[in-house]
Specification:
Elements: H1 2-17, H2 19-40, H3 44-65, H4 69-77, H5 79-85, H6 90-119, H7 127-151, H8 158-185, H9 191-220
Helix pairs in contact: 1-6, 2-3, 2-6, 3-6, 3-7, 3-8, 6-7, 6-9, 7-8, 7-9, 8-9
């Protein structure tokens, strides 16, 4: 666990050192969300209906932007070979990298999302559900994305292939997250949708590291 924590801190420091990698996803999230009223119009009731889906779609795409770099830098400089040979299980290394990815993408999205919710006229009852859905859903996006990043590692045009592979897997998370926020805005309980999001995250963190580690070993052969 100490080795996994050191790897986590190392990845965070690399992201902080390279500011563009840290700023690009959150800048995309903010700008893409703010462009929606320009396209659909500023009518308040329409924005209120669209807000849960639009915020979640842009959050999903912002998370996707940083996925291809999860393992690519280590693959190119040989660090991934050392990780595969190290006593640290590769599955734990995958979890550490997923955690670092979430801290640098999902966590900033959670912080900024309420402000964008105000701009998008999100219903006042939906803010708590939005934050809980992001707290459960964005880690699940990072976990599933780790599998896609591992499978497409070293492939030509890996970024486009990664998007094609991962986006269909993101659809259930998107559906349940937006349903939770919409239900809260309508005065209904978001709990069933949030529990399904939690189930996706738990299943992902239990299964995906093994699949991603196997894909990484295959890429290194």
């Amino acid at each position: 666990m100490n080795a996994a924590l050191r790897l986590f801190r190392h990845d965070i420091s690399l992201q902080l050192r390279n500011g563009s990698d840290l700023v690009a996803p959150i800048a995309f999230f903010v700008l893409a969300t703010l462009m929606i009223p320009l396209g659909v119009g500023p009518e308040p009731n329409l924005l209120t209906r669209l807000a849960p889906g639009m915020i979640w779609v842009t959050a999903l795409l912002a998370t996707l932007l940083a996925l291809d770099r999860m393992f690519l830098r280590d693959f190119e400089d040989g660090t991934l070979d050392l990780l595969a040979l190290a006593p640290l299980p590769l599955e734990l290394a995958v979890i550490a990298k997923v955690a670092a990815h979430w801290v640098t993408t999902g966590l900033p999205v959670m912080i900024v999302a309420p402000l964008l919710g105000v701009m998008m006229r999100l219903d006042a009852h939906g803010f708590l559900a939005l934050e809980i859905s992001l707290a459960l859903g964005t880690p699940a996006l990072s976990v599933i994305g780790a599998f896609g990043a591992a499978v497409t590692l070293g492939a030509r045009r890996g970024g486009a292939l990664l998007a094609v592979l991962v986006l269909p897997l993101y659809i259930p998370i998107l559906i349940f997250a937006t349903s939770a926020v919409s239900a809260a805005g309508e005065g209904l309980s978001p709990q069933p949708h949030l529990l399904l999001l939690a189930a996706f995250f738990v299943a992902g963190i239990a299964l995906v590291p093994f699949a991603a580690a196997a894909a990484l070993r295959n890429a290194l052969e």
